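Deliverable D2.4 — example input (structure tokens):
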């Protein structure tokens, strides 16, 4: 499966804000945006005029990078969102939030979405008692996500859980830190999502 493999700090710098792609590092002085608050490349510090299309493209790119998905999959989520009853932009973000790798990250079981994705692929989690190793699995209200019994003995996972013991949990999720189980209470609303993007620009881009 295709995956971005270049330096991820470049992505944050290109968007002009932290996308929290490297976990704890993003909160330190080593963060690429903190050290070099301009776009990468030899023309990164130049003044640029942004067209309407440019604003729409940046909104799409930022959202894709925030959740770690590529174009074809992102377009598929958009098409799915258009078939739902609510606002397309809000539905798109709700779909992205409901991905299993994002839920694992939101529960504090991964330092970043990339790490959460890797842990899911390695089969460390179950959904309603069944092993699921597909990061793009779309969770549903009522489902319970758990860390597998064997995986709970992993030093890596123990360290991640300890590091994120004070990790804030969105109100659309519930967690039992004793049993290491998380439950999807409801699909998130736009107010629950901490992505500083105007999703209507994405809808305008794809509507052309």
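Example output (designed residues):
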């Amino acid at each position: 499966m295709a995956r971005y493999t270049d330096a991820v700090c470049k992505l944050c710098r290109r968007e002009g804000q932290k996308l929290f792609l490297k976990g704890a590092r993003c909160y330190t002085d080593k963060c690429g945006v903190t050290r070099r608050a301009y776009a990468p490349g030899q023309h990164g510090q130049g003044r640029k005029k942004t067209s309407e299309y440019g604003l729409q493209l940046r909104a799409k790119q930022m959202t894709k990078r925030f959740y770690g998905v590529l174009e074809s999959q992102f377009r598929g989520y958009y098409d799915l969102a258009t078939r739902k009853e609510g606002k397309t932009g809000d539905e798109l973000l709700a779909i992205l939030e409901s991905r299993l790798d994002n839920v694992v990250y939101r529960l504090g079981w991964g330092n970043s979405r990339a790490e959460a994705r890797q842990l899911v692929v390695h089969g460390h989690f179950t959904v309603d008692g069944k092993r699921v190793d597909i990061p793009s699995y779309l969770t549903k209200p009522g489902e319970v996500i758990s860390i597998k019994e064997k995986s709970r003995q992993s030093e890596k996972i123990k360290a991640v859980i300890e590091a994120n013991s004070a990790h804030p949990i969105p109100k659309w999720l519930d967690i039992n830190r004793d049993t290491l189980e998380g439950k999807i209470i409801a699909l998130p609303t736009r107010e629950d999502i901490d992505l500083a993007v105007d999703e209507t620009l994405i809808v305008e881009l794809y509507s052309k």
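The CA atoms of residues 109 and 160 lie 6 Å apart.
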